[in-house]
């Protein structure tokens, strides 16, 4: 683009241009002269283009106004007055992601697509949604997404609303309460003292007038920044934005003002409480938090990312060793870390799973360890390992599941809203070089001394569970609702019932063909007929099967060792699950766990192990695989070979204190996951009812596994010797040359070097083949519930449709897409107030449906039961069906990271599938017809007859429906 600073084009004036080597491209800043909107272009050769639009949105209280506005504006707008426009927009698009998020101080709307026309069509609709929403004409959007009174069957009032129930789910976790209390204490004079997402008890205090005022204040052109990332045609994109939205955007006069908190004069100590049902089953959390400088200091930011790894993330952390392993004050330091989501970053050390009286010792122990590190110096191996970990992450870039352009957008938006240089966060190379130069000159020790030991803007917070607070909050809510009902006249109460009924009826009305015709969309003709075929090579190396994919990996080798785990007898499967957690976490005959951790982080991008059961394609069986996944630069292959040989042959289980710490962490995280991730746990449990793979995984990572490891941890001293022997025995049964296959993703020119290393490594493995065992699992219940400290439910239901004579077909993916965005969205989210509901299909023949943050139970199960009848009666216009087909195809066309490509390669090798089978699914999606819906209706009707379900949620809600369960667990 030939444009000088100050020159204009398509209504945009160029005000800044810089070359940014870190993103491999050019950064430009434009101002749209009429609207005042700033457009930041991050132009490079990445085909995964991103559009992001951000607004500074500062919370004024805890009613969640920013969050509710984010939800509500996506419903409908002036030019797109559809029902759930944002959802309808996804149909006919191959966007790999479309979402909106509320941050502590900003709200962003983003989309990513490999197709420029697709992305810009979405951008056009986004502009209308956020600047011209129908929230001013129709209060239903506020009620639906925020909150409204719901009349229960007994005539009492309750609260309902998507955001309300979402935040109920969020605040079921103690860590969310800790974060909220921490921000209140650290930033008492700034907007950061409020949760922008909203507190459940405060959300009903938000009036519609305040909600609209919030939108009016912040959604102005002068407060909007748009990011365009990737290889798109910038000239065309700017012209398109000018002609399709920005001309009508109100400029406004908002000026971003975000005050900084004045530093404290001394460390603050606070105790806070959070509501629970049973104190004995709940945890205390303790944290030390430090406000660290200014987010504009890139060198400081990178430095604290390295310190976070040293002090909190590494298994070699001196803090972990002292607090958890030696003093046993708690079970984990896994939360906390360096938070840069605010203008004033915060570094937090959080101890989970501790007792209330551990607070004083925690504080003194943390400061003692930090003083020792300053005085004696941080171990050089730990510094080197942490620096190399960051270096690898910066080189790899695309390891996350979100497109990298979205991460860059977040960084740029924060910098702009904080009044800093637009591109400052992207310039990390020089800052990293500086860290490397200073790493052994006491640099990190100086940072600890200045920002942690001698920082008065700090806080020690203890968060304690309280049954009394839980009861008081519930009583207060009931009282408020009773007062609200008592204040209503009979006419007002009747009107409330009528309004809710009208809203529910409107939520079931489908969009018209004319309405949908307003939205941009791609057609099947614009879709490729064939998927891109990866360059695969299959060969045998030292008698072992190897599958290779050639790709541009930036000299990183993605190597997966796939060990057949059938040699482990059934009674030892839980030990295999423990091994998957402990492998690389404990030492070997030659190195202790600290040396192993530092060696891994110095010479690789990470080594991780897992145990998983893979269903075999077109077969009834499954293959249990112990997978060891590695990322390594080809220049480090020599050190990698030595490390892997040591791990495979010499791993021991003698470090008693370390193993106890790891086991305690496993127990803790599993217990917390039933509150923090109930949708995952309910789905995992569901599969045990009808799937052999599910039953297997229950033994190595599910509920059966938890019931094995908890008593093991509680009686650790007496059982350690037997545990140590069992783990060594299981390891020896699995790590054998006869068991291993390899999946490798690597560049063409590095392939031979990698194969040479692998050949050498394989020759060191024991070669004898062991016994392959057959497993038999007994299913006890198929309709089960677990009561946890949640106000809402995760409801999973499903069955094995292959056993009922049905087969998997790609058209089922289209039908799931239709159901998720119509039938389930309308009835579970809009009418029910749940945060979401998804369908999961597998080629093995399994179907599962899961809702989450769901205030209902029986009603949701009834909705699931009605799917078959809905599909049988559904008449879908060809144009609409085509849109669903296109968006479903998009899931298979989406660019993915190298790490995910390497995972797909593992799947090919283990399950005996490949590009041919993916192409078949793609073709079946492309050729979906209305008749496909009728066939699927019978499948979903069969689910009603052979239904299994697992619910994790609120005790009162579950016990009210006790007759529909075979068993209810009041503890996990």
Automatic annotation (TrEMBL):
Alphabetical GO biological process terms: protein processing
SMART domains to which the protein is assigned, alphabetical: M16C_associated
InterPro entries linked: Metalloenz_LuxS/M16 (IPR011249), Peptidase_M16_C (IPR007863), Peptidase_M16C_assoc (IPR013578), PreP_C (IPR055130)
GO molecular function, one term: metal ion binding
Record Pfam families: M16C_assoc, Peptidase_M16_C, PreP_C
Domain Peptidase M16C associated: 463-712
PANTHER family: PRESEQUENCE PROTEASE, PRESEQUENCE PROTEASE, MITOCHONDRIAL
UniProt-recorded name of the protein: Peptidase M16C associated domain protein
Organism: Cellulosilyticum lentocellum (strain ATCC 49066 / DSM 5427 / NCIMB 11756 / RHM5) (Clostridium lentocellum)
